[in-house]
Amino acid sequence: MSKWSKQIAKVGLAVAVVAMTSSLASAQINSGAQSITLNAALAESLSISLSGNAVNFTLTGGSATNAGDTSITSTTSWVLKPGRTQVNLYAYFGSATAALVHQDPANTTDIPSSAVEISVNGGAASAVSTNAASAVGFGAAGAGLQLFNQAITGLNKTASRNDTMDFNINLSSLSQLPADSYVGTLNIQAQAIN
Question: Is 43 exposed, middle or buried (0-12, 13-18, 19+ CB in 10 A)?
């Protein structure tokens, strides 16, 4: 190849490189970035469901043992914010002296909350006669019972638990309870606290 031909080849190669570089530089174009704000919320919640809503008793006057005909299982579920430290479940009546009220107008005797007992998960039965519920704003003084106290940690901010309640009406202090029908409403309510 002559010197002149070599010069032409070099010039041709240089032109080709410049053309390729120019082509690559113009192959893409970028816009400015735009943003989207994502907002997410998980609401705090606390709820109870019961396996049933009635317990019947066939009473024997003066007997300490008048078991209810069925157990009730409560399911307490929660989704809690940081800072909550306890979930408590309570049973309570609206009156300590008249938890189950007589139905015959001629009868003036009622069954007090102290005669109603609850066993939780097979434990010892306790009378519904403490101030545990009224102290947190549920029911009447002397007409409540704390059923459980669940500590809340970082491991159970979202959880649930089942608790089975067995019921008894202890008439050992009501040996002269008149024959009648007695009706009452027991409330079950949970509370989460800091």
Answer: exposed
What six digits make up the tokens of 151? 């500590």
Return the percentage of the chain with pLDDT > 90, whole number: 86
Contact 101, 186 (CB under 8 A): no
CA distance 117 to 111: 12
Residue 171: Cβ within 10 Å count: 20
Taking alpha carbons only, the member of 114, 70, 65 closest to residue 92 is 114
Q: How does pLDDT run across 46-63, given as a tens digit for each residue? A: 999 999 999 999 999 999
6/22 Cα distance (integer angstroms): 25
Alpha helices in 26-80 (DSSP H): none
Spatial CB neighbours of 173, under 8 Å, sequence gap ≥ 6: 114, 115
Say which amino acid occupies 37.
T
**Cα dihedral across residues 29, 31, 33, 36: positive or negative:** negative
From 85, 118, 74, select the one nearest 99 (Cα to Cα). 118
